[in-house]
Specification:
Elements lengths: L2 H24 L4 H6 L6 H28 L4 H28 L6 H8 L4 H35 L3 H48 L5 H12 L12 H8 L9 H9 L6 H32 L10 H9 L2 H39 L5 H22 L7 H25 L5 H20 L5 E2 L2 E2 L4 H18 L13
Helix pairs in contact: 1-7, 1-13, 3-6, 3-7, 3-10, 3-11, 3-13, 4-9, 4-10, 4-11, 4-15, 5-6, 6-7, 6-13, 6-14, 6-15, 6-16, 7-11, 7-13, 7-14, 8-11, 10-13, 12-13, 13-14, 15-16, 15-17, 16-17
Length: 489
């Protein structure tokens, strides 16, 4: 490996650790600081932090890999995600920012739900914390798989060495600096990711051997006349399974927790505009990378054994070592931004919604911060064990965890913020139903084939079942103490 690559990567690692130290000195004195950065995030930081923690290695590995293999039809996932994120910013963000502070200054999603529905407070905190820890262990594993693939492909090292190295760097700045460190590193990482996704497709397309738009189109037409079609082979179920990825946004704790930390409700609109511009540019870059990367590989006889490594292969092949190192840093940024966010949210649930609730009700603020740090390490180690299979598919792991959160928490968050008739019993029913349906669907492999026909993405039945469970159980229950208007003080 050329020294220029190492220089760029070492500089990147040093920057991340430096941000962690800065955040440690700035905002880790109590649990609100450590878990939410004191609710004082700048709109730009909140926007890019939400985006970077959302997209992960999926943006640079999973999505380009899917497009590389199957063509433009795979772009429907990105389209669904874009509109889902937009609705999330409009519907959930302002309400969640206001209500989590109003309902006894809740610092976690489970705490908010418990405060919102006091008759089922303990059950909600326990069940939601369990779901968060389980699905985040899987979700975090997807990021570590990406780190392992990078290390194997680029550095010709052991897969698990890459997994543990990725985890080690993330743990360092997350444990030290908490939420502020994670948010600030996410901001920097989001900028790096977007820049890489602008540079890479353009260089691949217009490099001496790339051929430009016309030649790329001709090459792809020889591979498959319908490679650039958005509808080729697309069934109704296939379309719904792709675009309904957008439903997952409403229930992703590591994303919506950023809404809770924005400095004010008035700043949400600014954050939304910044975040959606970033997301639009980044998704277009990822689509271009997958499509133009396939054209480049075909024209130049490039063999790509694992489609999800197309970004890594082209970065190593086409750029000066210093730039290659920057691009690899972008991939690490995509991985680390999500892993750190997920670890912190999972650890906050363990600290606030389990340790404080069941083990030490009178725990001091300093004690909760310490427990949170230990929980970060614990969840990270479990995720690394799950990521132990080098044949793991990044997109597959992400899709399972995304569906689990989207179905369990999506309907719950939307209705708890907007429907005053909802009850604690309905909330518990929605949580359990959404998670159970997704787990059952995955176990039966119905996402691949359902009743002899095409598969159905598990978020669709899970989201619908959870929504219906909440409405039906709420209407049947009589918890009158919770029927307060949402604008009541």
């Amino acid at each position: 490996m050329q020294i220029g690559v190492w220089i760029s990567l070492i500089a990147y690692f040093a920057l991340m650790l430096g941000i962690g130290v800065y955040a440690y000195r700035k905002s880790t004195s109590n649990s609100e600081d450590y878990l939410l950065g004191g609710r004082n995030l700048h709109p730009a930081v909140a926007a890019l932090s939400a985006g970077a923690s959302d997209m992960s290695g999926w943006l640079l590995l999973g999505l380009p890999g899917a497009l590389y293999l199957s063509g433009l039809v795979e772009a429907w996932i990105g389209i669904g995600l874009f509109f889902g994120a937009l609705v999330n910013w409009i519907v959930v963000a302002p309400r969640l920012r206001e209500q989590t502070e109003r309902y006894d200054n809740a610092l976690t999603i489970p705490a908010f739900l418990a405060n919102r529905f006091p008759t089922k407070a303990t059950a909600l905190r326990l069940v939601s914390a369990i779901i968060i820890v389980i699905f985040f262990a899987v979700y975090t594993a997807s990021g570590l798989v990406a780190g392992g693939k990078l290390f194997t492909t680029v550095f010709e090292g052991g897969y698990m060495t890459g997994v543990w190295l990725t985890l080690g760097v993330v743990l360092a700045y997350t444990v030290i600096g908490g939420f502020l460190a994670v948010s600030l590193t996410d901001f920097v990482q989001g900028c790096i990711m977007m820049l890489a996704l602008v540079i890479m497709p353009l260089v691949v397309l217009y490099s001496g051997q790339g051929g430009g738009f016309d030649q790329a189109g001709e090459t792809l037409a020889q591979v498959d006349p319908n490679f650039l079609s958005l509808t080729n082979g697309l069934t109704v179920m296939g379309f719904l399974s792709a675009v309904t990825w957008g439903l997952g946004y409403f229930g992703q704790p590591h994303i919506i927790v950023r809404f809770m930390a924005i400095r004010s409700v008035a700043a949400v609109a600014t954050a939304r505009n910044i975040g959606m511009v970033w997301m639009g540019i980044s998704l277009l870059g990822a689509v271009g990378l997958g499509v133009f990367g396939r054209a480049y590989a075909e024209r130049n006889g490039l063999v790509v054994e694992d489609a999800e490594t197309i970004f890594i292969v082209l970065a190593d092949l086409l750029f000066h070592p210093l730039v290659t190192g920057f691009l690899f840093a972008a991939l690490l940024a995509a991985v680390m931004s999500t892993v750190s966010s997920q670890l912190l949210v999972a650890s906050s649930s363990l600290a606030e919604d389990f340790y404080r609730l069941f083990l030490r009700k009178d725990a001091t603020e300093g004690e909760i911060v310490t427990v949170g740090r230990l929980a970060v390490v614990l969840v990270g180690v479990v995720a690394a064990i799950i990521a132990g299979d080098p044949q793991s598919n990044v997109l597959g792991l992400v899709s399972n965890a995304w569906a689990g959160f989207g179905a369990a928490f999506g309907p719950l968050i939307i209705l708890s913020l907007s429907w005053s008739r909802m009850t604690g019993s309905g909330a518990v029913a929605g949580l359990v139903t959404g998670a159970a349906v997704v787990i059952a669907w995955i176990s039966l492999d119905w996402s691949a084939s359902f009743l002899g026909g095409p598969g159905v993405y598990e978020i669709i039945p899970g989201f619908i079942a959870a929504f219906l469970a909440i409405v039906v159980v709420s209407l049947m229950s009589r918890e009158q103490g919770e029927f307060r208007a949402l604008n009541a003080k």
